[in-house]
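seq/struct pair 1
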Amino acid sequence: MNIQPQAIVETGALSGKLNEDGDVLMFFGVPYAAPPVGALRWRPPQPARPWEGVRDARFRASANMHRRPSLKTFYGREFDQLEYPRSEDCLYLNIWAPLPREGEQYPAALYFHGGDSHANKAVFDGEGFAKNGVILITVGFRCGVFAGLCHRELSLESERETGHYTSGNYGLLDQIAAVKWARRNIRAFGGDPDRVSVFGQSAGATAVQRLITTPLLKGSLFAAVMQSAGGMDPRYMTAEATLEQSEAFGGKVLESLGVSSIEEARALPAETILNGVEAGPETSMAHLSPKPDGYTLLHTPDTAGYLGEYPANIPVIIGTTKHEGFAYGTYDSVTEDTLRQYLRRGFGDAWEDYWQAAGVKDDSTAQKVRRQDSGDVKMAACYSWVRRQNLLGRPAPYVYLFTKEAPGPEGAGAFHSGEHAYVFQSMDKVPWRPYNDSDRALSQAMSRYWANFFKTGDPNGAGLPVWEPTRDMERDPWIMELGCRLGMVRPPQTRVSDFIQRFVLDFCSSKNP
């Protein structure tokens, strides 16, 4: 259809497009903040600039600065066959809204992607999801060193400009700005500002956990979904660094880039910075992740989870996939020695307890243990968080385990990120994977669960198996299985998962006596 729907937001008029079925309005590349370039690099997001006339919102904007995975890798083939230009100028929204109905206001859900990703991926297409009666918004935000660089110069600059000595929380501030924009403007798309929810996967789920605890969004959110992260993750706990330590790391970053001041660093091309800063997962978690500063955040995610520091009126869905680590690559090079080093970094002196629980006997079992580690860790992070909320008398979360193994020859199982096409109902946008009728039926059910949740705070609805909240994860645990079977089941428990849950709760208890 050639009809071009229009919407008027606080900065001007938008012209979007209608989907082929004529029942979803689409507005892409909608700015929610000013481009964070030049002097605005490593500064909080600033208001989007107004425009004159009608802005063309039929096309997606640039993706954030991120490292593109090789198409030779599993994740490159799975999610990056369509490329978008990269740019620091990335603070844009893609919006899918059901066709307006007189007298009806739709709930809205903002989606936050995971690490080394972006909001324009085909699998995040929201057309199918919007047909459930929910406005879906994918959010572009700064990532990596552009989002999280700490440096004493930046902290002093912030203190002068805002009264808060802090740096490195720029990506989180982008996400907060996107939520606030949605609250202010969602009526332009037929939305209800009192039903604005957030959901995310992997690093995006950890972002959601921060969004429901930041004082800057107090009273702003309706519901939250955390997929394959969030909770109380031991890897974040043991990798945490102070602002002072991360400022020192930022100094080394500038040295590696051949500059000696933030002014000089702001003058560098974005590609130079992206290619010049090597930061693995542990370094990123330690130094490039948001930090409690008494302003943006009061606590780390694990401490917030342990203390139950999020509003009681925000219902939560949280869960994982069954085979979180199966698609990360080959584990053939893992040996007893490399596994031992890996566990020491993650669990310190308690690594031997993990080793004993896993029953490592030789290199072969070490490889199997390492392959299963991500699943054990994420399940334990989720289940220990739920146990803690139960103990504190917090509202019982809805907990799931996604078990549907991906169709195709790779044997990746229910891999990390494998639920995307099911939740978004976007299987037709990723035709390289041979989804079948059973996959589509599961997608319809999952998408409806998520949509119901964003409408009412309860995933249940007509024609769906009942999903009970998990009220006693420690003594009588029940969770929803989302796979070939749909229904409440006992969560899988392994000796390793049990150990990690004990480790997490003991670690948090020692930090918060």
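seq/struct pair 2
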Amino acid sequence: MSGGVRTLDAEALAQACAGGRAVRAQDGEELVVGAHLVRELCRRDRDEIDPRGLAIEGAQIKGDLDLSGMEVPFPLRFTDCVFDRPVDADGADLYLLAFDGCTVPGILANGLRVRRDLDLSRSRITGDLRTSASTSCGAAVWLCESEIGGRLLCQGTVISSTRRAIQADRMRVGGTIRLLDGFEASGGLRLIGARLEGSLDLTGARLTRPDRGLALDLSDAQIGGSLFLIDDQRGRPPLVRGCIDLSNARISGQFLIRAAVFEPAETVRGTGYSSRRSSGTAISAPGLFVGGDLSVEGECRIGGGADFAMGSFSTIRIHRECAFTVGGGRALDLTNAELRSSLLIEEGVAVEGTLRLAGAHIRGDLRLSGTRWSRPEKESLIAAQGVVVDSVVNLRGLEATGGRLRFRSASVGGVLDARGARLCNPGGDALSLQQALVRGPLLLTEGFTAQGRVLLNRCGVEGRLDMEGGTFSEGIEAVSATASGGMGLRWAEVPPRVDLTGASTTVLADDAARWPQDTAISGFVYDRFDDAWDWRARRDWLRAMTPFDAGPYEQAARVFRQHGHPAEAEHLLIEQRRQARRAPAPGGRSPRRRIRDARDLLYGLTVGYGYRPGRVLWLLGALLVLVGAMMLTPWAQETLRATDPRGNVYAVDGRLVTVDDVAAPKDGTATGARRGTRPGPCGDGQVRCFDPLFYTVDTVVPLLSLGQRATWYPETRSPHGSLVSTLLNTAGLLGWLLSTVVVLSFARLARPV
């Protein structure tokens, strides 16, 4: 009846279905179909219904449409229909079910079996229905334990609920789930443990949770295809107000996020048996497996963190237009994750928050060049303790503000390139590579700037540690660090402090004049200098370091000596002894210390601390001159005596005492003799004649025996005899000491270097 209300009866409905015709309202009329008629039709025999099934368009469905437990072998299609009561299809076994453009106050379909598609496209579904499947909250659409042989289509669908829009735990879908073309869900989508043979497509979807809780729960889900959260062809970006949970989910294909907007979630307190999730998390996906790539493309605005801890991925790629805004939180958490290829964050990406890579294994590259980082969680912008990167770590041109880059105990299989990076964390650590292993070069060059400490303690670099052209505003600590390929330490500005205690390298390439005064290089071992063999520059380099340490002098001297510069090595060792004497004593200068310093000063002036034995020859010559001059004087010669085997005593000018009777001399130093004296001072050959020159040599150089000192001795009872004896004995001791030094010095010079 045109322009009025037409109520369809059972016979008309049966005839339409038998003929394969759609039941639709005429122009201007309002068509009413009783829900009980639909149920009765579904109970008819299959042969009475055309294979096209039931199709109702533009009608009002009055009453409860109860299909629970029914087996319907033909399609059921409702187009632009309005239902005044929820649809109940619990446990039903249907061929196809479609609500296209309908208004439905809820769908109960737990345990539903649909051999083909379940189509909810363009429909408006509202409600907070409760079932025995959940005691915690209601949902607008219930599909728990349902099986859909084809696709679940929600193109342009709008679902509203105060808590959950769809609850479909452990649902199985043989095809894809398409929530796109303006799909909106006010309330969470819960698909815990769902199994999809195809993909999950959220192109242009808008998922909002009024309480900013779980907007999409895919924990333990398995997706045989890919997961798409991308903008549609009209440029409508996907919007997620709340959290996406992918805990322990498995995606066989790729996970693509493009031009999506994530608005931060508040702290999510789990309801029922679910767990509590951290505050501000946009994507919570610990244990997620993605068989393909995880890509974040376009102008993505992620206002919460992405937690992929313990996950497994092929490649994670974040494109240049993206931005993470999680100030004070975790922007990207890959703790203990495995990347079968690389982690690539392109140049221009801005991240407010922390990148966590603790314990992660990246089998390809870690590329963060040109990225910008700020507002970290707990002082670390990049927390990569124990990370393993099989290939290259590229930090070139990276900018970090307000936090540190921490790679403690990390392992890098190739080069770690931080050329041109700018790290700003005043008063804290800018870069920490403590106990890290870098199997290639470590490059902190070409404008690298660190406003904060650079920590390389116990870091092992199998390539070259290069800091040429870098700026280290708060110093470098590299205690026990090793660099097998050498160290390039020609920094752009002199750092305030450098600590290389116990470090080791092969080649030291530096500017000796551009080291800070506060330098600790005790135990620093290197094999050679690159091209600077100026011992004076090295002396000034070592002299400028405070406090004094003897070890660096010995190391530098060893390097000079091993490379054919023994004289330069001795200069450095002499300087070492000088600085040791000048170094302040811990308890002040005691009298004993003053005596030791004086002895050390004398040792240095005389023989150059043993490294200038040539000076002894001058001292020995001076002693020879002094003794020779003394022995040429009459008062010294008058004291000398000699005795032959018969007991005759001689002075240098004749016999004094003989065994024959002769006149006693007037000086009283001899007794009378029975015979006359024999002329001549040598006793006619009975004693060796006195020679002042040879006597001097025999006294001063006791290593030689000329017979003079053994023959002639000072008579202590004569005038000046005691003085001459004392002087000669002292000269003999000094001569023995100086001669020994000369001999030992020649022996040292004879040794091969």
